């Protein structure tokens, strides 16, 4: 293999004297003087342990020689060494050091936190008294379906600012979360604003609702078992108070709405009865249907009599003189009967054109013999008035409106009584089936699990960072 001097750039066949004390290399074929080249080669013997050689003095001006293959092998080896050092350094800074710090903090410094939980469900009573209508039953079913909404409402309230303000009225939350001896990273720090307290409160409470079962779970953490139990018990009372207030407000609104319906129905009934009274005054009859029925019966009876009298008169005229007394008497009775029918129908404000026509025919027949009486009878007939069917139709419309108003009024009265009955009972309530209890051991923080999570997260971040770094470096190269 060719030899190159790194500084002088000498040719391949130029012999170089080795530096004093430099070991001879058996692998590389060197250019030797001609006298040494023609010498007889020595037989190959087994390698023996070299004897100690005297250390020769090194020339200060002698330059070391380099092998191209050795130089090519040394450069990648140094790169790999630098790369390995960089990888281990980054792993220590990004993974090992954070994991060690987390282990020291969670193992030696962090304060214990105690858990108190309670479970509840918002329920509605199935209150359906006797006589309840289908509408009220449907409203009750809708109210029961709204229980999920009430559960979500309570869960959202427990993590809200309103819950913190209500708790602060009875408990000193700042003192509970800022007790002496609690580590600085776990305790309540920062300013004394309500926003800071609410933010810290949301990190110490876990409220969830299972939509499949309709059950809610609330977990509260504090730095002493008594504090956690006190806070959880107060939250149960506040949840019940909230649901009772909402339910009471709904019941009051329902009663108020029912009362307004009754007022409207009462006014509607008054208007219907006033219209009926005005109709009676106008038509001069207390009950047009009954009066008309009786009048029609009487008119039919009188018409029957009138028909009989007319038949007798026609029979007498066949063989008697028209001026005979018997004929005159029958004509007078016929005219009187017609007037009676007209007078009866006039009492309810009706005219009868048929009777008037009959009386006119009778008067015309009498005028052929006597003249004057028949003319007087015909002139005594009043003018035509509205027919009886129109009056009955108007009466039925007015009376039907009155009946509808009365039924609507009865319905609203029943709804009002039902609303008042429901308001007297507590319909919606919080059923706490798991009461808060004092913790006997600390469950938070989970030291080993948290440290492991930090290690895995840091390792993933380190791996991604290394991959991105090498990808960018290879792209640039």
TrEMBL record:
Keyword presence, Transmembrane: yes
Ranges where the record places region Disordered: 1-50
GO cellular component: plasma membrane
Coiled coil: 255-282
Record keyword Magnesium present: no
A GO molecular-function descriptor: protein tyrosine kinase activity
Swiss-Prot/TrEMBL keywords: Coiled coil, Membrane, Transmembrane, Transmembrane helix
Transmembrane segments: 85-108, 448-472
Domain of life, source organism: Bacteria
Record-linked PANTHER family: FERRIC ENTEROBACTIN TRANSPORT PROTEIN FEPE, TYROSINE-PROTEIN KINASE
Name of the molecule in the record: Capsular polysaccharide transport system permease protein
